[in-house]
Automatic annotation (TrEMBL):
Protein name: Integration host factor subunit beta
Keywords (A to Z) from UniProt: DNA-binding
Keyword DNA-binding: yes
Annotated Gene Ontology cellular component terms: cytosol
Family, as annotated: Belongs to the bacterial histone-like protein family.
MF GO annotations: DNA binding; structural constituent of chromatin
Provenance organism: Accumulibacter regalis
InterPro entries: Hist_DNA-bd, Histone-like_DNA-bd_CS, IHF-like_DNA-bd_dom_sf
SUPFAM superfamilies: IHF-like DNA-binding proteins (SSF47729)
Annotated Pfam families: Bac_DNA_binding
Length: 94
């Protein structure tokens, strides 16, 4: 599902809101999630899952074209862990 499909589905579920209002709400939620992760905080949505950051230390990699060693800097990578209810729902839907 892409963002526009999410907006359409939510607008259909809540006809009292205009599609523009629904789009603003979706954008506000996603922006809040992004800002929270950017600050290094954790997000937990009960019944859905949690978002956090995984830190990867610096390492030495290789340039695939030349084979030359290259330093890969440390970085933080977003990580999602599904909650029990979501895992159960996805597993039973098969």
């Amino acid at each position: 599902m892409i963002r526009s499909e999410l907006v359409k589905r939510l607008a259909a579920l809540f006809p009292q809101f205009t599609p523009k209002d629904t789009e603003l709400a979706v954008n506000a939620i996603l922006e809040a999630l992004s800002n929270t992760l950017a600050k290094g905080d954790r997000i937990e949505i009960r019944g859905f899952g949690s978002f956090g950051l995984t830190y990867r230390p610096p390492r030495t990699g290789r340039n695939p074209k030349t084979g030359e060693a290259a330093l890969v800097p440390a970085k933080a990578v977003p990580h999602f862990r599904a909650g029990k209810e979501l895992r159960t729902k996805v597993d039973s839907g098969r």
